[in-house]
Structures are given as structure tokens and as C-alpha cells.
# Entry
Amino acid sequence: MKIKKVLGIIGATVGSIGAVVLSVNVFNKMVYKSAVKSDEDYEKGYYYDWREGKVHCKVAGSGKPVLLLHSLSIGSSHREWSEVFDSLAKRYKVYAIDLPGYGYSDKPKITYTAFLYSALIKDFIENEIGEETSIIAANGSAMFAVIAGKLFPDFISSIIAISPGGINDKMAENSNFKKRTFMELPLKGTLQYNLKTSKKAIRKFFEEYGFYAKEKISDDLVNSFYISAHTEAGDARYAYASFVTDYMNMDIKQYITGLSIPLTIIWGEENTIFDTDAAQTVKDLVPWAKFYVFEKTKLFPHIENAEEFFKVCCINIK
# Structure
């Protein structure tokens, strides 16, 4: 084969690769530009300076402090509590934070783990709230709250855990490191993240796992999660990479049995992630805890049945 022909083939190949890279880059930028434009009028809270970056917080009300911790689902943020935030703020001083890697909080390139988030809970209560606090935590963040409750009981007065993780979840293995590293790549990782966090993908997740009543899945709700998933161009992929490769998971059985503070467990009866087996395991581990089953709800009973959820919280906040 002549040298000119070989060079021509190489040139064409390089040109094709360059075109693909350019297309992916343009697509990624368009995704974030669209999300930022949709978010222009949103009123943000303030920032708590933590050792791993700034943590966004919305606060309102007065009285006994209550800390709200959102789930770990794609696009989760303090906005997840919008259905009950104002009602709670009429009776308590309510803090709703975005966990690092989520929402408006910083998104450093680190490994996001249960211990990292548990340390944040303790530091935020100690340095920002300044007194013993009740925690209401959803799904994966309920796992972090339980760990913090066992390790730092002097800072937490009670925990209300919605479908807590860490019961039947897989733990990260050595083989997960390579997958997580790939997902953190600036081009390919960002592209994969953007595909997983499209409005279509978020709606599909809600329909399959999030909500029993499909009519609860409004365009505003999907858009809210979509915006929160794209608040900083590309950097949210770091927390997402740790989440899907199980680095955030922790077996909390030994922590939940060692709790010395009041514990309330809430779950949606139709939840297929925190299912009947997981609920029974928790009942066997902590028979002294209070248990509430919300009928015709799945992963987000605090959104699907906010009125009843608020009543249960008021009974069990200590």
C-alpha cells in the first residue's frame, strides 16, 4: 500500500474520531446550557463551608431544628422536600441541604462514601445548627443518618428514615474501581451521565420505581430533578459514579441495632427497592422502633402522600 494512501486512511480516521469527539462535546454543552437556562429564576439558599467544599442549604422556620436529607436518586436535591418543607417550617426550624455531589453543593472529584456523608451530618449539626437535631432522611441518605446516629448520638435527637439503604444492598468490590474511573472521564463519563439523566430517563425511573400514582409525575417534578442533575457542567458524574458502583453503600445492620436514639421507619408499600424482605429485616433488627407503611406509594411517600407524611413526622420528631 502506498504511503499516500495509508496517510489518507489515517487522516480520514483521525478526522472521523475528531468529529465524534466534537459532536459529543457539543451535545454535553447543550445539555448543561439548557438546564442552566431553566434554572435562572430559582431562589437559592446559603452555603455552609465544609472541608470537601460548599454545601448548599435552604433554611426556614423557628423552634426545634430538623435536618432534611434527600435521597440519592438521579437529580435529587433539597427540592425533593418541597411538598412538606413549608408545613414543617411552620412548626420547626428546618434545614434542607444538598449533599456534596448533588444539587447546588460543590461536586469535587472524590470517592463518595457513607462515612463521608455521615461525617458531614455530624459537622453540619455541630458547626451550623449548634444543638441536638432531629433528622428526616430518604432512602440512601437514611443509611448515612443511621451511621451518624450510632457514631455521634449526642448530636442527633431522633431519626425518621424513609426506606433506608444498607439492608440488602451490594457493597463495592475491587472490580468496581475500573467502572467508576471510566464514569469519571470528562468526555465519555459526562456523555453517559447526560444520557442517564435525560428528562426521558428520569420520568422512566419515576414510573418504574419512584411513584405508584403515575399522575403524580408532573412535568414540573421531572424538570426539577433534571435541573438539579445538571447544576454544574459534568461534575455531578463523580457522585453518580460512586453511587452506581456501590461505593456509597454500607451494611448498617450493626449500626441500626446499636442506636440509642428514637428511630422511626417509613416505607411505601409498593416499593420494589426497599421491599417487604428488607422491611422485615429491619423489624427483626430493631423491634423497638416505630414502623409506618404508606399504602399506594413507592420510593417517595413524602411526595406521593405529603399530608400524611407530615403528620407522622410531627408525632415522631423528638
Notes: The longest helix spans residues 3-38. The two ends are 80 Å apart (CA to CA). Confidence is low (pLDDT under 50) at residues 1-33.
